[in-house]
Protein backbone atom coordinates (compact mmCIF):
# COMPACT_ATOMS: atom_id res chain seq x y z
CA UNK A 1 0.00 0.00 0.00
CA UNK A 2 2.89 2.37 0.70
CA UNK A 3 4.12 1.99 -2.88
CA UNK A 4 0.64 2.68 -4.23
CA UNK A 5 0.30 5.76 -2.03
CA UNK A 6 3.68 7.02 -3.25
CA UNK A 7 2.41 6.58 -6.82
CA UNK A 8 -0.81 8.45 -5.92
CA UNK A 9 1.14 11.31 -4.35
CA UNK A 10 3.28 11.52 -7.48
CA UNK A 11 0.12 11.91 -9.56
CA UNK A 12 -1.10 14.58 -7.14
CA UNK A 13 2.12 16.57 -7.58
CA UNK A 14 1.82 16.52 -11.38
CA UNK A 15 -1.87 17.44 -11.18
CA UNK A 16 -1.13 20.35 -8.84
CA UNK A 17 1.70 21.59 -11.04
CA UNK A 18 -0.51 21.56 -14.15
CA UNK A 19 -3.48 23.08 -12.33
CA UNK A 20 -1.52 25.98 -10.86
CA UNK A 21 0.07 26.67 -14.24
CA UNK A 22 -3.28 26.62 -16.01
CA UNK A 23 -4.80 28.97 -13.42
CA UNK A 24 -2.70 31.78 -14.91
CA UNK A 25 -4.62 31.35 -18.16
CA UNK A 26 -7.60 32.95 -16.41
CA UNK A 27 -5.71 36.25 -16.46
CA UNK A 28 -4.73 35.72 -20.09
CA UNK A 29 -8.28 34.99 -21.23
CA UNK A 30 -9.58 38.06 -19.36
CA UNK A 31 -7.00 40.28 -21.08
CA UNK A 32 -7.72 38.77 -24.50
CA UNK A 33 -11.48 39.14 -24.04
CA UNK A 34 -11.16 42.72 -22.84
CA UNK A 35 -8.82 43.57 -25.72
CA UNK A 36 -11.19 42.07 -28.27
CA UNK A 37 -14.11 44.04 -26.85
CA UNK A 38 -12.22 47.33 -26.77
CA UNK A 39 -10.84 46.97 -30.29
CA UNK A 40 -14.23 46.00 -31.68
CA UNK A 41 -16.04 48.90 -30.01
CA UNK A 42 -13.38 51.60 -30.51
CA UNK A 43 -11.89 50.71 -33.89
CA UNK A 44 -14.73 48.57 -35.33
CA UNK A 45 -12.23 45.78 -36.02
CA UNK A 46 -12.89 42.10 -35.36
CA UNK A 47 -10.71 39.02 -35.76
CA UNK A 48 -11.90 35.41 -35.84
CA UNK A 49 -8.46 34.28 -34.71
CA UNK A 50 -8.59 36.32 -31.50
CA UNK A 51 -12.19 35.31 -30.85
CA UNK A 52 -11.31 31.63 -31.25
CA UNK A 53 -8.29 32.12 -29.01
CA UNK A 54 -10.72 33.07 -26.23
CA UNK A 55 -12.58 29.80 -26.71
CA UNK A 56 -9.35 27.78 -26.79
CA UNK A 57 -8.09 29.38 -23.59
CA UNK A 58 -11.40 28.77 -21.84
CA UNK A 59 -11.34 25.14 -22.99
CA UNK A 60 -7.77 24.76 -21.72
CA UNK A 61 -8.73 26.13 -18.30
CA UNK A 62 -11.80 23.91 -18.03
CA UNK A 63 -10.19 20.67 -19.23
CA UNK A 64 -6.68 20.90 -17.77
CA UNK A 65 -7.86 22.10 -14.35
CA UNK A 66 -10.55 19.42 -13.94
CA UNK A 67 -8.11 16.93 -12.40
CA UNK A 68 -6.77 19.58 -9.99
CA UNK A 69 -10.35 20.41 -8.98
CA UNK A 70 -10.92 16.72 -8.20
CA UNK A 71 -7.67 16.49 -6.25
CA UNK A 72 -8.65 19.58 -4.20
CA UNK A 73 -12.16 18.13 -3.60
CA UNK A 74 -13.76 21.25 -5.08
CA UNK A 75 -16.31 19.59 -7.37
CA UNK A 76 -19.97 20.20 -6.56
CA UNK A 77 -21.47 17.84 -4.00
CA UNK A 78 -25.00 17.61 -2.63
CA UNK A 79 -23.89 18.70 0.84
CA UNK A 80 -27.38 18.59 2.29
CA UNK A 81 -27.35 14.82 1.69
CA UNK A 82 -23.70 13.94 2.30
CA UNK A 83 -23.70 15.97 5.53
CA UNK A 84 -26.20 13.51 7.02
CA UNK A 85 -23.98 10.51 6.25
CA UNK A 86 -21.13 9.15 8.32
CA UNK A 87 -17.53 9.69 7.24
CA UNK A 88 -17.10 6.01 6.41
CA UNK A 89 -20.26 6.00 4.28
CA UNK A 90 -19.00 9.02 2.33
CA UNK A 91 -15.67 7.24 1.82
CA UNK A 92 -17.46 4.20 0.42
CA UNK A 93 -19.52 6.41 -1.91
CA UNK A 94 -16.30 8.01 -3.20
CA UNK A 95 -14.63 4.63 -3.66
CA UNK A 96 -17.53 3.10 -5.59
CA UNK A 97 -18.15 6.28 -7.56
CA UNK A 98 -14.53 6.52 -8.71
CA UNK A 99 -14.39 2.82 -9.54
CA UNK A 100 -17.75 2.41 -11.27
CA UNK A 101 -18.38 5.84 -12.83
CA UNK A 102 -15.32 8.11 -13.05
CA UNK A 103 -12.66 5.65 -14.22
CA UNK A 104 -14.81 3.84 -16.86
CA UNK A 105 -16.02 7.19 -18.21
CA UNK A 106 -12.51 8.67 -18.51
CA UNK A 107 -11.17 5.47 -20.09
CA UNK A 108 -13.93 5.55 -22.73
CA UNK A 109 -13.29 9.22 -23.45
CA UNK A 110 -9.53 8.69 -23.84
CA UNK A 111 -10.17 5.72 -26.12
CA UNK A 112 -12.57 7.72 -28.32
CA UNK A 113 -10.57 10.96 -28.36
CA UNK A 114 -7.28 9.34 -29.38
CA UNK A 115 -8.26 8.66 -33.03
CA UNK A 116 -10.28 11.89 -33.11
CA UNK A 117 -7.25 14.02 -32.25
CA UNK A 118 -4.90 11.97 -34.42
CA UNK A 119 -7.09 12.41 -37.51
CA UNK A 120 -7.30 16.17 -36.91
CA UNK A 121 -3.50 16.31 -36.61
CA UNK A 122 -2.91 14.26 -39.77
CA UNK A 123 -5.08 16.52 -41.93
CA UNK A 124 -3.75 19.66 -40.20
CA UNK A 125 -7.33 20.73 -39.54
CA UNK A 126 -8.10 24.45 -39.50
CA UNK A 127 -11.15 26.42 -38.44
CA UNK A 128 -13.75 26.88 -41.20
CA UNK A 129 -14.06 30.55 -40.19
CA UNK A 130 -12.11 33.10 -42.21
CA UNK A 131 -8.80 33.81 -40.52
CA UNK A 132 -9.51 31.15 -37.89
CA UNK A 133 -6.94 29.13 -35.95
CA UNK A 134 -5.64 25.61 -36.37
CA UNK A 135 -7.99 23.19 -34.62
CA UNK A 136 -6.05 20.06 -33.64
CA UNK A 137 -4.31 21.67 -30.61
CA UNK A 138 -7.73 22.57 -29.20
CA UNK A 139 -8.93 19.00 -29.72
CA UNK A 140 -5.73 17.73 -28.11
CA UNK A 141 -6.67 19.69 -24.98
CA UNK A 142 -9.74 17.47 -24.64
CA UNK A 143 -7.58 14.36 -24.72
CA UNK A 144 -5.02 15.80 -22.31
CA UNK A 145 -7.75 16.83 -19.88
CA UNK A 146 -9.29 13.36 -19.75
CA UNK A 147 -5.87 11.70 -19.41
CA UNK A 148 -5.12 13.91 -16.39
CA UNK A 149 -8.58 13.20 -14.95
CA UNK A 150 -8.08 9.46 -15.45
CA UNK A 151 -4.79 9.42 -13.55
CA UNK A 152 -6.19 11.64 -10.80
CA UNK A 153 -9.14 9.26 -10.50
CA UNK A 154 -6.68 6.41 -9.96
CA UNK A 155 -4.94 8.49 -7.29
CA UNK A 156 -8.21 9.22 -5.49
CA UNK A 157 -9.18 5.54 -5.65
CA UNK A 158 -5.86 4.49 -4.07
CA UNK A 159 -6.11 7.09 -1.30
CA UNK A 160 -9.72 6.18 -0.50
CA UNK A 161 -8.85 2.46 -0.38
CA UNK A 162 -5.94 3.24 1.95
CA UNK A 163 -8.30 5.04 4.33
CA UNK A 164 -10.97 2.33 4.27
CA UNK A 165 -8.90 -0.84 4.28
CA UNK A 166 -5.47 0.06 5.68
CA UNK A 167 -6.36 2.66 8.28
CA UNK A 168 -4.32 5.48 6.74
CA UNK A 169 -5.31 9.05 7.74
CA UNK A 170 -7.53 10.89 5.31
CA UNK A 171 -5.51 13.63 3.61
CA UNK A 172 -8.28 14.76 1.26
CA UNK A 173 -8.78 18.56 1.37
CA UNK A 174 -12.13 19.66 2.78
CA UNK A 175 -13.07 21.75 -0.27
CA UNK A 176 -14.51 25.24 -0.07
CA UNK A 177 -18.12 24.33 0.74
CA UNK A 178 -17.11 21.69 3.29
CA UNK A 179 -14.58 24.04 4.83
CA UNK A 180 -17.17 26.79 5.21
CA UNK A 181 -19.57 24.38 6.88
CA UNK A 182 -16.88 23.22 9.28
CA UNK A 183 -15.94 26.82 10.07
CA UNK A 184 -19.55 27.71 10.82
CA UNK A 185 -19.88 24.71 13.11
CA UNK A 186 -16.82 25.77 15.12
CA UNK A 187 -18.15 29.33 15.43
CA UNK A 188 -21.52 28.17 16.77
CA UNK A 189 -21.86 28.49 20.57
CA UNK A 190 -21.69 25.23 22.46
CA UNK A 191 -24.50 24.38 24.85
CA UNK A 192 -23.37 23.56 28.39
CA UNK A 193 -24.08 20.05 29.51
CA UNK A 194 -27.25 19.68 31.48
CA UNK A 195 -28.92 22.97 30.61
CA UNK A 196 -29.54 25.84 28.23
CA UNK A 197 -26.88 28.44 27.32
CA UNK A 198 -26.46 31.25 29.84
CA UNK A 199 -27.68 34.71 28.68
CA UNK A 200 -24.92 36.61 26.95
CA UNK A 201 -25.16 39.69 29.20
CA UNK A 202 -24.78 37.70 32.40
CA UNK A 203 -21.85 35.72 31.01
CA UNK A 204 -20.08 38.93 30.01
CA UNK A 205 -20.72 40.44 33.44
CA UNK A 206 -19.21 37.43 35.17
CA UNK A 207 -16.12 37.56 32.96
CA UNK A 208 -15.74 41.28 33.75
CA UNK A 209 -15.75 40.56 37.47
CA UNK A 210 -19.19 41.94 38.33
CA UNK A 211 -21.05 40.15 41.11
CA UNK A 212 -23.97 38.05 40.07
CA UNK A 213 -27.36 39.37 41.09
From TrEMBL:
<dbReference type="Pfam" id="PF04290">
    <property type="entry name" value="DctQ"/>
</dbReference>
<feature type="compositionally biased region" description="Low complexity">
    <location>
        <begin position="189"/>
        <end position="201"/>
    </location>
</feature>
<dbReference type="InterPro" id="IPR055348">
    <property type="entry name" value="DctQ"/>
</dbReference>
<comment type="function">
    <text>Part of the tripartite ATP-independent periplasmic (TRAP) transport system.</text>
</comment>
<keyword id="KW-0472">Membrane</keyword>
<feature type="domain" description="Tripartite ATP-independent periplasmic transporters DctQ component">
    <location>
        <begin position="30"/>
        <end position="161"/>
    </location>
</feature>
<feature type="transmembrane region" description="Helical">
    <location>
        <begin position="55"/>
        <end position="71"/>
    </location>
</feature>
<keyword id="KW-0997">Cell inner membrane</keyword>
<feature type="transmembrane region" description="Helical">
    <location>
        <begin position="133"/>
        <end position="151"/>
    </location>
</feature>
<comment type="subunit">
    <text>The complex comprises the extracytoplasmic solute receptor protein and the two transmembrane proteins.</text>
</comment>
<keyword id="KW-0812">Transmembrane</keyword>
<keyword id="KW-1003">Cell membrane</keyword>
<feature type="region of interest" description="Disordered">
    <location>
        <begin position="173"/>
        <end position="213"/>
    </location>
</feature>
<feature type="transmembrane region" description="Helical">
    <location>
        <begin position="92"/>
        <end position="113"/>
    </location>
</feature>
<dbReference type="InterPro" id="IPR007387">
    <property type="entry name" value="TRAP_DctQ"/>
</dbReference>
<feature type="compositionally biased region" description="Basic and acidic residues">
    <location>
        <begin position="204"/>
        <end position="213"/>
    </location>
</feature>
<feature type="transmembrane region" description="Helical">
    <location>
        <begin position="21"/>
        <end position="43"/>
    </location>
</feature>
<keyword id="KW-0813">Transport</keyword>
<comment type="similarity">
    <text>Belongs to the TRAP transporter small permease family.</text>
</comment>
<protein>
    <recommendedName>
        <fullName>TRAP transporter small permease protein</fullName>
    </recommendedName>
</protein>
<keyword id="KW-1133">Transmembrane helix</keyword>
Amino acid sequence: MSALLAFAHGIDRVTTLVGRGVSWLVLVVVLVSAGNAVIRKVFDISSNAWLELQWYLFGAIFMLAAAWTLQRNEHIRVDIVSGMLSKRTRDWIDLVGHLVILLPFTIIMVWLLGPYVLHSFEINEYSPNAGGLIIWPAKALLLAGFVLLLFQGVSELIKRAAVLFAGYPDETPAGSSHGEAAELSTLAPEEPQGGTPEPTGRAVAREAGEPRR
